[in-house]
Structure prediction request, 393 residues.
Amino acid sequence: MFELTKDHDDFRHAVRDFAADKIAPHVAGWDREHHFPSDLMPQLGDLGLFGLVVPQEYGGAGLEHGGFTYLCLAIEELGRVDQSIGITLSAGVGLGINPILSYGTEEQKQTFLPDLVAGRTLAGFGLTEPDAGSDAGASRTKATLADGSWTINGAKAFITNSGTDRTSVVTVTARTGTAADGRPEISAIMVPSGTPGFTAEKPYDKLGWHISDTHGLTFADCVVPEGNLLGERGQGFRQFLKILDDGRIAISALALGCAQACLELATDYAKTRNSFGRPIGVNQGVSFQLADLATSVEAARLLTYKAAWLKDEQEAGRRSVAEVKQAAAIAKLYSTEAAVVATRTATQVFGGNGFMEEYPVARFYRDAKILEIGEGTSEVQRMVIARGLGLPA
Prediction:
């Protein structure tokens, strides 16, 4: 059965110390100004966080059969300080590096991975469209192959890390034909930043994740070489379902960081905030809420760590893809919903102060809701879990 080692614990504390020193003092200002801290990315790279699942030949840590648990610990600790920074790492690895690492040619890996691992550049992943979210097969973006080049036309929505000054490439899914069964043939194509016809639209005005970079993308007769195909033609949909399974565990870790932060903040506040001459934590109306919150945080932690361990075991050939898919969906569903409840509980404990932006719980409250939506909604997770139980699709 899984358990964290001393090395895991030492790593966690290294990331925690970094977050407390380099991130925590600045997040309130970054959030207020909707500022993406580009200069922080190489620092995350120097700490090795972008390369935890990447082999050493591409600049990574060489933990490809064990690195996913380390990655989730890093995302949890960053997310405990700020959710935007946590999702930047999560998306940078899971949606930026992982597709190239998993399906790229050796030339593609050598071209992009060293800079991505070092944090010198970032990569995005263009799946969602204005009219195609959970139904990714409804993608309308098209890519036509002629004379050795792909010509891409279409649009993508809500794409993380896609418009920063460090973004080097975005991998997009597009219709490249019709499959034998009549369904759309979906392929994945890499589009380098600066390619004519590729535009990252202005940043979204979001409810939360103000520090995270998120754009809509448009492609108007955007031409890239035929060799920019990532993996096999027609396999893009299958590839990215696999990518999303891994990403759901990472989002579970991000949600865990959010819930843990809310538990710590609310508990400390309940010990020091006095009402009627005594700390509000004396009141069962407060203490019972925090007891319930502590219980849900512990459950989310166990589900997240188990799913991460199963992923590492699957990479080593000891567990099945189906086991990881089910565990990822369960962890993502529970942890994200627990995080939303945690932010509401913490805000309630803080009372009127919880509604003030000077207190971190307000930022966590705004940031939490997207956790139940991105990387597959809670409804989609329930569908996946039900199918894993053998119920009819």
Summary: The chain has a mean pLDDT of 96. The chain has eleven helices and ten strands. The radius of gyration is 21 Å.
